[in-house]
Amino acid sequence: MLDLENxxxxxxxxxxxxxxxWYVDGEEIDFKGFSVDPDxxxxxxGLIQEGEAPQWVWDKQVGVKGPRPEGEYKRGFSVxxxxxxxxxREWSSNGSGVNKGLAAIWESIHTGHSKNKGKLAGxxxxxSSAESIGKGTTRIPKFELxxxxxxxxxxxxxxxxxxxxxQDEDDEAxxx
Length: 176
Prior knowledge:
Blueprint: E1 12-16, E2 21-24, E3 27-29, E4 33-36, E5 42-47, E6 55-58, E7 74-83, E8 87-93, H1 96-113, E9 119-133, E10 136-150, H2 169-174
Parallel strand pairs: 1-8
Antiparallel strand pairs: 1-2, 2-3, 4-7, 4-9, 5-6, 5-7, 7-8, 9-10
């Protein structure tokens, strides 16, 4: 009843550049996109290590760097997203490729948010690209802002878009 035995580490979504794959709660998924709550974005310094809970020191204001803590902390973010079939999940990262992926779409989200208060930004995942950073290579997830959607109030249920909105089948399934 309390689900205290489950050691899964919480409900989250992650992009792993090393294998070019998306994971929800530790399981690989066929990822098409998700809806982002722009009001939930936090930026800061994160220490993320395999097998340990992430440690964060959040900026007082989004995008305004606070002092870097001692240790192996790197710049990162956390934002709440809604996925069809899974519900709400936290997407956080301090990886350079993932940070670049979010930063590339954020201007579109930020610009549209003022006209769409209380709505979620429906992002369509369009793949990833490899990029050399420092001495290694990473992958940068790519998105397009497909539409603005109402935030769900309960468990995910399929919702059909109005007939006037022309979109392909993949888009229809992404954000409901």
